[in-house]
Design a protein that fits this description.
alpha+beta, about 400 residues, OB fold (Dihydrolipoamide Acetyltransferase, E2P), six-stranded antiparallel beta barrel, 21 strands, single chain, rod-shaped
Length: about 400
């Protein structure tokens, strides 16, 4: 028996129960008629109805780049559920602030370049002045060395001493200018290094702002369907929203592997556990049944929807891993309904729950008899929300009462 056939049988069973209720209503107290059903063996299943939506098992988050500082403004977003290819822009942030900062830093660099050029010219002039003094002093020293009075037979002692003093002075002067030239060069290097350091600081900022400007264009890392991120109130982002670095804008799900995020009403969750088989249908295409297994179950039931705190209904969230993904019709966000199969027994007698009567620990049914109905004790097995398995006390082909036994004619 295929899953689709099983699914259709359950629909027929529900319709049969609805018809039974209608028959009961038609047989009211006015005419005293009673509703019966013939007992037949068949398939008994305990199923749990579920509803939810499809989502991707894996999805790549699309976030505000981490290198962006402070608050950003969302300037543009690709349409939700639009198919984008790798490298295409999915979001764009406002660039006014970064453009202004980049222009300011580029102006600082231009100003600093002029300052460096001016300083280099000033230092070059001072260096040339010292070189000129050194050259003149060197010539004077050479002249004093060559022409200075040294022969005591030709020059007086005073002349020889004066010329020796002049030579020593010029030698000292030459050393002095050499020392000043060395200090000037060190000073020039230090001042230029300081200016170059400032320039590098501005250049780093320029590079950062250029990278930030480039990152304002947020692109798709791979092909996929762009889905918006919702906040805790279920609201999606829109153009003009304020965002911060690392904040999720949306996601690109991997469409090759989808799963169902489904909800089970807490009161109907009896027997729910992992690895149970399940079947679902798309709301938009109810004729095709897809199979899968329950992989995870939330430990705590909770309300869903916008009025979570006010709603008395609690649901367990479950994930159903599908056996296959039909890329032709499936996409994240598709609404689904289905069943989780808790138990299945074949060739058993199962009766509607309203046909059972409980009294002092005994369970009975009313079996049709030629003179009316008779009470018969039965033993029961597995129970669902609508039917119960009879393990002993009934035979196939017998007819049982589906109404209150006090209404029958004795």
């Amino acid at each position: 028996m295929t899953v689709e056939t099983t699914f259709k049988q359950k629909i027929k069973m529900i319709l049969l129960l609805v018809l039974t209720v209608i028959l009961l209503g038609c047989g009211g107290q006015d005419d005293g008629r009673m509703a019966f059903m013939t007992v037949r063996k068949g398939v008994f299943e305990i199923v749990i109805p579920v509803f939810g939506e499809l989502r991707a098992v894996k999805a790549t988050p699309i976030s505000v780049p981490p290198q962006l500082q402070g608050e950003q403004t969302l300037a543009w977003l690709a349409p939700e559920n639009s198919y984008v290819k790798k490298g295409e822009t999915v979001a764009r942030l406002d660039d006014n602030w970064y453009t202004e900062q980049l222009q300011a830093e580029e102006f600082n660099i231009a100003r600093l370049n002029l300052e460096i050029e001016k300083k280099q010219k000033e230092l070059e002039k001072e260096k040339n002045d010292f070189l000129g003094e050194l050259n003149i002093t060197a010539i004077e020293k050479d002249m004093a060395d060559i022409y200075g009075a040294k022969d005591e037979s030709l020059y007086s002692q005073n002349k020889i001493i004066e010329d020796a003093i002049d030579l020593e002075y010029l030698t000292t002067k030459s050393k002095h200018y050499e020392q000043k030239k060395t200090k000037l060069e060190k000073k020039a290097r230090a001042e230029l290094q300081l200016l170059q350091l400032k320039k590098r600081t501005y250049q780093v900022k320029v590079q950062q702002y250029k990278e930030a400007l480039a990152s304002l264009e947020i692109k798709a890392p791979h092909d996929g369907l762009f889905i918006y991120e919702r906040n805790w109130r279920g609201e999606e982002l829109r153009v003009g929203s304020n965002v911060w670095r690392g904040m999720k804008l949306g996601k690109l799900p991997d469409l090759t592997l989808l799963e169902a995020k489904a909800y089970v009403l807490e009161s109907e969750a009896g027997g729910l556990k992992e690895n149970l088989s399940a079947s679902i249908v798309l709301d938009a295409l109810p004729s095709i049944v897809y199979t899968g297994k329950v992989t995870t179950i939330d430990k705590i039931a909770k309300s869903i929807g916008r009025d979570e705190e006010k709603s008395p209904l609690k649901y367990f969230e479950v994930k159903i891993t599908l056996d296959k993904t039909d890329l032709g019709v499936m996409k994240p966000g598709n609404q689904v309904k289905g069943f989780i199969f808790v138990q299945k027994q074949e060739n058993v007698i199962a009766v509607p729950n309203q046909a059972l009567f409980f009294n002092n620990g005994e369970v009975s049914v009313r079996v049709k008899h030629s003179s009316g109905t008779r009470k018969r004790l039965v033993e029961i097995g597995a129970r669902s929300l609508t039917r119960t398995v009879i393990t002993k006390g009934l035979e196939e082909g017998e007819e049982i009462l589906l109404s209150n036994p006090q209404k029958e004619k004795r």
